[in-house]
Every structure is written in C-alpha cells, then in structure tokens.
Amino acid sequence: MTFTAIDFETATSARNSACAVGIVTVENGIITDEYCTLIQPPKNEYSYWNIKVHGIEPHQTRFAKNFAQLFPEIEIRLKNKIIVAHNAGFDKGVLHSTMQHYYLSPSRYSIATNWQCTVKIYQKLGFKPANLAACCERLNIPLQHHEALSDARGCAKLYLNFLQNHQ
C-alpha cells in the first residue's frame, strides 16, 4: 500500500503542455505528502477548451516555472515508485511527452513504466460510468474535479479502497 498518485492538467491538446500537476504520496496506506504546482507550458499557450475544463489561464502561469525547472521536485516523488493515475494512458503520456520536450529521459530517472490505472480497475469492478467524478461520488470521496491535487488525492483514495477491499 505504498504508491504515488498523479494527475496532470494540460494547456492544449498537446501532451507536452502540462500546466498543473498534483502528486499524492501514500506510504503503508497513509497519505504522507501532497504536492501541487502550476507549470508554465511551452510558450505559455492555452486552448480555450482546456481553460473551460480546468479554469487555469495564461496569466496564472506567466511567471510559473517550466517543467524542467520543477522536475527535481517531481522526480523526488516519482523515482522508483509505483505510479497510479485515473486515466494512466493520459497522465503517463503527458509526463513522458513533457519530459521528452525538455530532453529528460524517464529511464534515466527511474520513473516507472508500469502504471496502475484506476479507471481500468473500477471498470473491471463493474462501475458504470468509471470516470473519476463518478467513482469518487459513488464512494463518497470528496473531489473538486479537474483541480490537479484534488484529482490526484481522489485517485489515491480510489486505489487505497481497491487495495483494502478487493484484493
């Protein structure tokens, strides 16, 4: 029951456009660390549609650090950890694409290639729909959807619920 849950928000449809990240560290079934930060995406460009989803706007990240500058803090939380995300394909893609954009190699930094995906886990458990908001609502997990730290915390609690009740 030791893992790290992660959630990214993106500025555009490009996978390398991370504009926020939430990371929740769980050790022996207890949340021990929460990290959240805004990230300046490449050229600080945003899509109208992405802003509508998460509410983050260019003026909020204009003076934020870029991903490469924040990576040491992110790496500490991900290195040699089991990583869990609600839509692991998306979050893993954002992490890897953003790392690649800044010439950072996931294998060099010992960042997991095998992620756990809570959406797939809860689909197999018969949850319909199995999106993050629906799963959290069904299990009475508080969620401010599309806020990176809240989403990561919700994902962490979903994974803990699975480990405690379904294995």
Structural key phrases:
167 residues; alpha/beta; 41% helix
Please tell me about this protein's structure.
Strands 3-2-1-4-5 form a 5-stranded mixed beta sheet, sandwiched between helices. It has helices spanning 48-54, 58-61, 67-78, 88-101, 118-124, 132-138, 148-165, and strands at residues 3-10, 18-27, 30-38, 83-85, 115-117. Strand 4, helix 4 (88-101) and strand 5 form a beta-alpha-beta unit. By secondary structure, it is an alpha/beta fold.
Topology (elements, then pairings):
Layout: E1 3-10, E2 18-27, E3 30-38, H1 48-54, H2 58-61, H3 67-78, E4 83-85, H4 88-101, E5 115-117, H5 118-124, H6 132-138, H7 148-165
Parallel strand pairs: 1-4, 4-5
Antiparallel strand pairs: 1-2, 2-3
